[in-house]
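Dear all,

This email documents one entry for the complex benchmark we are building for the journal club exercise. For each entry we list the sequence lines for every component of the assembly. Then comes the predicted three-dimensional structure of the complex as a token string, followed by one or two observations. Please use this as the template for your own entries, and keep the labels exactly as they appear.
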Amino acid sequence: MWTYKTSVHWIEGKTGVLRSEHKPDVPVGTPSEFGGPKEGYWSPEDLVAASVGSCIMTSALFFIDRAGIELQSYESSANAVMEKTPSGLAITGVTVEVAVTLKKPEQEAALREAMNQAEKSCPVSALLKCPVELSVAVK
Amino acid sequence: MWTYKTSVHWIEGKTGVLRSEHKPDVPVGTPSEFGGPKEGYWSPEDLVAASVGSCIMTSALFFIDRAGIELQSYESSANAVMEKTPSGLAITGVTVEVAVTLKKPEQEAALREAMNQAEKSCPVSALLKCPVELSVAVK
């Protein structure tokens, strides 16, 4: 069992700071469309998207490493959609688009298999009630 | 409908950087117990805890503001637990402990009501399959 410890401290208005030991502070705030600051602050919804995108990457890196695949680059976007629903605001989907460049083009099939395994084993995707859509482009 | 856009870029080893427009970059990595760096990087699991903790805070700030409650301080911890399960690693619970100091002690009942409303309306808590336990201390 592992515990991941964070804290959040209100600063003023709709803003605060996120902390976790030995990691850089992250400014957080209400999204601007709900009265938060215009720029400079991560919103909780941003952090949901970021947790999924980074979990797909770290899961992928495990399988990529195990398969001996050599990465040139790995870039991805992760977007979360929030909508008004009858029961209030709800995050209804997350899409993750990954673009990978390989040092050895012949490893594309192995890379796609590693990404499939990452998609299945990512604990953050598995935690969410909404759909998580992953697409992978290999260059 | 609102979209929250983030991206993650692999740097080297088990590390990368999270980006979102007009917000400071956040270093991310695999947790150290799974081969990631020892210090300095937010893990996906940290970001799950942080998204819940910050969502409870931003939701609370909405109701606190609406009720005319004057905060002296708002501090909270948010911890996520991950465990090995028959189907692999899973995040099995998040606990959020909030400590609030009020400028006017007579607003405690209103503050507790605002926290109840925040707990019910936080879109990140509602998105998770695992239990989210919230406790509130008022000083």
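Observations: Chain B touches chain A through 73 residues (CB under 8 Å). Strands of chain B lie at 2-12, 15-19, 26-29, 71-85, 88-102, 132-138.
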